Amino acid sequence: MTGDGINDAPALKQSDIGISILDASDIAKEAADLILMNSDADQLFLSIVEALKFGRLVFENLKKTICYLLPAGSYSELWPVVMNVFFGMPQMLSSFLMIIICCLTDCAGSIVLAYEGAESNLLKKKPRVVTGERLVNFKLLFHAYFCLGTFYTFTSFLVAFLNLTRRGLKFDQFSLSFGSYQDIPNVTNWLNMSSSIYFVNLIILQMFNLLSLRTRHLSLFQHSILKNKKVIFVVPFVLLVNFVINYIPAIQRTMGTSQVPVEYYFIAVGFGLVVFTYDELRKLIARKYPNSFTARIAW
């Protein structure tokens, strides 16, 4: 509700958001929740629309950032520890590489998402229920943990154990071993390599997830890269971090990392394309069939 006169004061008081202007009566300004300082009438009401747009945009980008951080930075890092503690398997992702993900690679992507531009349908959506819609709800957690996190974890373990199998090591040599595998010749080097492979798989999957999360409803192909040019710099930054920690001998020796065979990069890109394609199809179904199950569980 907008108003500037004394007679508007009751309506301003009763409305969800009462908006008054700088030249309004003192009573109207007292009753209003928001006072617009611009004296230009045309710009005055445009600023209300802009405020609504950016208010929604901040909320959207916060959700995107949280959804980006959860699959790799918590869920996929948790399971190597669980498998190590409860099933006696070697920790497939080292603690050092977990820190690199949390403090460098994931941090870069999450910062970039904060600058994401608005989707073209942002102001066409129904307003959220302020008292009922949470920033982090079940739908977001389901998408981040069950849909993305489970796929991340499964594929990362898959390529890590594939590497061990190619080195002549069997799964039963590690399952419920609780450290007895230390007597296997050259096992430390192979485990370091598998840990780095697990890491590479996660960071590449997150690159594709970053692209997907730029939009919640529209296809990425309907959302110009010009709305957030900073995304372009994330990929080279992440690859640079990967090179420094996995390919510099001094860091390899100190932190227990290893070079990653090139074929595992191609495998990770294949998994990343699965993530990207899945999310594009999910958004397409939600747009075409707004009453479908997919649309109802869309975060």
Automatic annotation (TrEMBL):
<feature type="transmembrane region" description="Helical">
    <location>
        <begin position="262"/>
        <end position="278"/>
    </location>
</feature>
<dbReference type="GO" id="GO:1990573">
    <property type="term" value="P:potassium ion import across plasma membrane"/>
</dbReference>
<dbReference type="GO" id="GO:0030007">
    <property type="term" value="P:intracellular potassium ion homeostasis"/>
</dbReference>
<dbReference type="InterPro" id="IPR006068">
    <property type="entry name" value="ATPase_P-typ_cation-transptr_C"/>
</dbReference>
<dbReference type="InterPro" id="IPR023298">
    <property type="entry name" value="ATPase_P-typ_TM_dom_sf"/>
</dbReference>
<dbReference type="GO" id="GO:0006883">
    <property type="term" value="P:intracellular sodium ion homeostasis"/>
</dbReference>
<protein>
    <submittedName>
        <fullName>Cation transporting ATPase, C-terminus family protein</fullName>
    </submittedName>
</protein>
<dbReference type="GO" id="GO:0005886">
    <property type="term" value="C:plasma membrane"/>
</dbReference>
<keyword id="KW-1133">Transmembrane helix</keyword>
<feature type="domain" description="Cation-transporting P-type ATPase C-terminal">
    <location>
        <begin position="90"/>
        <end position="285"/>
    </location>
</feature>
<dbReference type="GO" id="GO:0036376">
    <property type="term" value="P:sodium ion export across plasma membrane"/>
</dbReference>
<keyword id="KW-0812">Transmembrane</keyword>
<dbReference type="GO" id="GO:0005391">
    <property type="term" value="F:P-type sodium:potassium-exchanging transporter activity"/>
</dbReference>
<feature type="transmembrane region" description="Helical">
    <location>
        <begin position="190"/>
        <end position="211"/>
    </location>
</feature>
<keyword id="KW-0472">Membrane</keyword>
<feature type="transmembrane region" description="Helical">
    <location>
        <begin position="93"/>
        <end position="115"/>
    </location>
</feature>
<keyword id="KW-1003">Cell membrane</keyword>
<dbReference type="Pfam" id="PF00689">
    <property type="entry name" value="Cation_ATPase_C"/>
</dbReference>
<dbReference type="InterPro" id="IPR023214">
    <property type="entry name" value="HAD_sf"/>
</dbReference>
<dbReference type="InterPro" id="IPR036412">
    <property type="entry name" value="HAD-like_sf"/>
</dbReference>
<dbReference type="InterPro" id="IPR050510">
    <property type="entry name" value="Cation_transp_ATPase_P-type"/>
</dbReference>
<feature type="transmembrane region" description="Helical">
    <location>
        <begin position="231"/>
        <end position="250"/>
    </location>
</feature>
<feature type="transmembrane region" description="Helical">
    <location>
        <begin position="136"/>
        <end position="162"/>
    </location>
</feature>
<dbReference type="GO" id="GO:1902600">
    <property type="term" value="P:proton transmembrane transport"/>
</dbReference>
